[in-house]
Specification:
With 509 residues, this protein is α+β, with helices and mostly antiparallel strands. It folds into 3 domains: 34-38 and 175-372, Rossmann fold (3-Layer(aba) Sandwich); 47-169, Trefoil (Acidic Fibroblast Growth Factor, subunit A) (Trefoil), CATH 2.80.10.50; 379-501, Sandwich (Jelly Rolls), CATH 2.60.120. Helix content is 21%, strand content 28%. The chain contains 8 helices and 28 strands. The protein has helices at 17-33, 189-192, 199-210, 241-255, 266-270, 278-292, 309-330, 358-372, and strands at 47-49, 53-57, 69-73, 84-85, 91-93, 96-100, 111-114, 125-126, 132-134, 139-142, 155-157, 168-169, 181-187, 215-217, 221-222, 232-235, 259-263, 297-301, 336-339, 377-381, 388-391, 416-423, 427-437, 443-449, 455-459, 463-476, 479-487, 493-501. Strands 13, 14, 15, 16, 17, 18 and 19 form a 7-stranded mixed sheet that branches. Helix 3 packs across helix 8 and helix 4 (241-255) runs parallel beside helix 6. The radius of gyration is 24 Å and the shape is globular. Bound molecules: calcium ion (2 copies).
Length: 509
């Protein structure tokens, strides 16, 4: 089976956008046919509320004065569910404090977010019975009627020790698991993240968090930056297929992954280790993996490009065999699925001829995520003049950006980055914004899609060149659309945006 045509070539001069999306729709269909979390997450601690909820600010990590404070399902990456305890007894998130409306004291007064100002209505004491006590009012934080539904607005009420008043301030550092779906990134240095610690896993984690998935990356190895919420992985630099195979069954028995992401074979090609036999070795590895974890789904990719033509030629022969290896095992009832990774990158995305740049790893993450959500994910670079323009802003080069360039200095009232997006159908899309924010607090852009009123997109601060991915639901018209990011609060940069159609959910994440 030939390697698939690159569905969204980053080097194509002017991809008719609709064609690009349509091609990836076909890719999404093809993918379907083939068939812990170290919260360096946001700073601060969660406040566990009644019914396994978390104390949350209404709206996505925006939090202006008066923003309602409510219960919501816990989301480990949500900045507005992480609260810092200040020395004056206040609890702070998004730069503001948990506040009783009007500094009130009456039972039933709602709580909100407000500028930290040291008033008595912002003082909270954790008590041993699990309540959060406000000394000024003599009352406790309370969920009305003991409600636990998402969006339940909180209030103060007479302290009564009931479940409605159980609010426990957590410890700031989580473990390497958030209790979600276990995913094992498995492979060699490209999984380990050679040159760029965390590799594709950092952006993949960001995609998962952007869509509210809770996942536990598993494996015996660990590395990566703060924006990678779970550093566990099973990437072994320099290892070939046979070397991974010697340990793979033990690894999956140790961690019971639900989903395995496998990119392996590069070292077989680089070492010229019987490349002709590599497909058979891959088949053996997959057999051992699926025997050891028959309930797991194994997503198997072909290899990203190699710069050396001789190595690349070997790899392309191997790549061409991978879909057949996968389909033969799938025909036996084994849960294996092919993911076309070669087409996600070009040699321009390599740092050293073998390993991706940071931007290349980001493209790998987008392709893995496309498979995991069974939906095409198309990337639109901020710097591509075919469809993107900046006004009173610029396009600096960036060592960590996809394509090596980002949009920056969106600093003034009239500054913006604007895309001309051509969409294949009218309806709902999921947009992912790869943004950089080194301000130390949440920054925003004002997003305008066509003629709709402007909305706010908020980005956590991981540091400049440490990219976050934020998900936004947008409605596009078939054909031409205008998507504009204008300056909001403080200063954030944009590397690229991605669009996904809303595909069928998979059980893999
Ligand atoms: Ca983990
Ligand atoms: Ca870019």
């Amino acid at each position: 089976m030939p390697a698939p045509e690159p569905p969204l070539s980053r080097t194509r001069r002017r991809p008719p956008a609709a064609a690009g999306l349509a091609a990836l729709c076909l890719l999404g269909a093809a993918l379907l046919l083939g068939t812990g979390h170290a919260s360096a997450a946001p700073a601060g601690a969660t406040i566990a509320g009644p019914g396994n909820t978390c104390v949350d600010v209404s709206g996505d990590d925006v939090g202006g004065n008066g923003a309602p404070v409510q219960l919501w399902a816990c989301q480990p990456q949500a900045a507005d569910q992480h609260w810092t305890s200040n020395t004056d007894g206040s609890l702070e998130t998004l730069g503001r404090c948990l506040d009783i409306n009007g500094n009130g004291t009456a039972a039933g007064t709602q709580v909100e977010l407000w500028d930290c100002n040291g008033v008595g209505g912002q003082v909270w004491q954790q008590r041993s019975d699990g309540s959060l006590f406000n000394p000024q009012s003599g009352r406790c934080l309370d969920s009305p009627g003991g409600a636990t539904a998402d969006g339940t607005r909180l209030q103060i009420w007479d302290c009564n020790g009931t479940a409605a008043q159980q609010f426990r301030l957590g410890t700031p550092s989580a473990g390497e698991s958030n209790g979600g779906v276990r995913i094992m990134p498995l492979g060699d240095s490209i999984t380990d993240g050679f040159n760029v610690p965390g590799g594709y896993r950092a952006d993949l984690w960001q995609y998962l968090a952007a869509d509210g998935h809770t996942d536990d990356f598993v494996g015996s190895q660990s590395n990566g930056p703060a924006r990678l919420g779970d550093h566990d992985h099973e990437g072994h630099p320099g290892w070939r297929i046979d070397e991974i195979d010697a340990h793979a069954a033990d690894w999956v028995r140790a961690t019971s992954p639900r989903t395995i992401l496998l990119h392996i074979g590069t070292n077989d090609m680089v070492q010229n280790h019987d490349p002709a036999g590599a497909p058979a070795r891959l088949s053996t590895l997959l057999t051992h993996l699926t025997d050891a974890a028959p309930g797991a789904d194994v997503l198997v990719s072909d290899l990203i490009p190699l710069a050396d033509p001789v190595l690349e030629s070997r790899a392309e022969t191997y790549d061409a065999a991978v879909p057949g290896v996968v389909s033969a095992l799938a025909a036996q009832g084994r849960h294996v699925h092919f993911v076309p990774m070669h087409s996600a990158l070009t040699t321009a995305d390599l740092a050293d001829g073998v390993h991706p740049t940071a931007g290349g790893y980001s493209k790998m993450a987008a392709r893995w995520y496309s498979a995991l959500i069974s939906s095409p994910v198309t990337r639109w670079e901020a710097e591509n003049p075919a469809y993107a323009t900046v006004h009173d802003a610029d396009l600096p080069s960036s060592p960590t950006a996809s394509g090596g360039v980002k949009a920056g200095h969106i600093d003034n009232a009239d500054s913006y980055l604007q895309y001309a997006i051509t969409a294949p159908y009218t309806g709902a899309y999921r947009m992912y914004v790869r943004a950089g924010n080194g301000m130390g607090s949440v920054c925003t852009h004002l997003l305008t899609v066509d003629d709709a009123p402007a909305t706010t997109v908020a980005y956590p601060s991981y540091g400049w060149e440490e990219w976050s991915i934020t998900g936004v639901d947008v409605h596009l018209q078939q054909g031409a659309n205008t998507v504009r990011f204008a300056k909001g609060t403080c200063y954030a940069e944009i590397d690229a945006i991605d669009f996904a159609t809303l595909g069928a959910p998979t059980p893999w994440i």
